[in-house]
Amino acid sequence: MFNTPEELRYAKTHEWVREEEGLAVIGLTDYAQDALGDIVFVNLPMEGDAVTAGESFADVESVKAVSDVYAPVSGTVAEVNEELLDNPALINEDPYGAWFIKVREVRYDEELLDAEAYQKVCEEEHEA
Amino acid sequence: MELKTPLYDEHVALGGKIVPFAGYLLPVQYPTGVIKEHMAVRTAAGLFDVSHMGEITFRGPTALQSLNHLITNDYTNMPVGKVRYGILCNEKGGVIDDLIVYKFAEDYYFVVVNASNRHKDFEHMKKNILEGTEIADISDDLAQVALQGPRSFEIMAQLLPEEDIPQKYYTAKEHVSIDGMDCIISYTGYTGEKGFEIYTAPQNAVKLWRLLLKTGEPYGLIPCGLGARDTLRLEAAMPLYGHEMDDEITPLEADMNYGVKMNKEEFIGKKALEERGEPQITRVGLQMIDRGIMREHQDVYVGEEKIGHTTSGTMCPCVNKAVAMALIDKKYSEIGQIVEVDVRGRKLKAEVVALPFYKREK
Questions:
Q1: Domains, in order of start, for chain A
Q2: What's the fold here for domain B280-353?
Q3: Predicted TM-score of the model (pTM)
Q4: Where does B22-127 show beta strands of DSSP type E?
Q5: Is A1 on the interface with B (CB under 8 A)?
């Protein structure tokens, strides 16, 4: 029902992680963007900020509501996708292309899910 | 336990995201999304299920007197077929509900109220009507859909002869037959666009809904949910019960003077409104200057002084700005006044702007 690429890992809170040249690239999943609806605003951290796995590092606002975005890993923000600030709709259009931040000095402090396990989480939530 | 409108299965079949609202399960949006639904209403047309709304009839020789006693507006000399806005005040001048009144005969009026207030309104009305007035809550006997947007007239013209379509804003026609279905057709709405609200028996609802969608499709008509209904009404600065007004806020404080006839001899709450005097607060529009989005119930400041709070706020698709309505101290209500809004712990700069945020071109 929702797109969950095999090569990514996922947090239960609906963020995805892609490993890329020693960095962890982080974004919101297809399920999350669909549940939020049209995203109209994003708050992002600054380069150099510390992020902690399981804690909020950004928030997104849809027409309807505000939602926190949680860091699936710990580390330091190496790069911020500033394009999202001007065009938050990219998250709806291409959730796995519209990354939020890249993290260096990555520590996997929280358990992450593979695509199959994450899909199950979505299905359960969707049923509820 | 939430109720379902007669169109519930249609919403599910169309992929609507169903949420509980005012005791009903209703679609907040369809797969098209709030922004596209909003824009469809501004540029073409949108169809809303508003069957949750409450309908109460007033009949009898004193129906007019009862309405004039209960409601802040004046219904004397209102012609048959006319619709007029009004407010139900409590003895303290606070707002019990806002509503619209249809006149279908000298002794027959039809009142449409907010779904969430329906029972409260009915009890209040029952207690205060005059002898010679019979009221009935017929909400469960009626479904309602709203066809809204600049192309609504063309769509309606495919279904009805011109004489069956109300031509003036805030007028309505009773017993109009759409493909054999007995309907009330009302030139009213809650979007800031031209359009119609159509009432019919629940057993007709699915047929009417499908007929309208099919007829309207070539004109760009799409089904719209509660999300778009809220952004549309906010952009048009139309107040919503529980946000811009409630039991504690008077209609004068909420800047709804257009629905209050203080020169009328009497209505429930008039004395309290007089005693409270010139309101010290008023409703204003705010537009965000900093980056961020205002929501309801956020405090508004000038310097360290708290001057009020927001009542509704969102990112408005049409004007593409973060806007809010707020009830604030009147002395800071001048257009151009810079304020700060506490958006989840961050004080963001906003500016007082004229309402409405969006006004359709005539």
A1: 10-105 (2.40.50.100)
A2: Elongation Factor Tu (Ef-tu); domain 3 (2.40.30)
A3: 0.89
A4: 24-29, 45-49, 54-59, 83-89, 95-105, 108-113
A5: no
